[in-house]
Fold this protein.
Amino acid sequence: KESHRVIDSGPYAYIRHPMYTIYMSWIVSTLLFLPHYTVPVLFLMALTGFSLMAKREEHMLCKALGEPYETYLKRTGMFLPKW
């Protein structure tokens, strides 16, 4: 759409993919209630998959939104805030 713009308020002011961060936090917290060897494996699979999806999304957004999104990339963390 022509009216798309970079959203950099709320959680997006600190991280670019808060939804993926929440999913991974949920998997890690599951380890507290279900201490099973499959949970860390699931976390590694999720981290790999979400990283690949996020990179693809960011590449698409860089092409669509240009310089404002590239500046946003430098300022924020992918899954955790930049300090």
User: Anything to note?
Assistant: The chain has three helices and no strands.
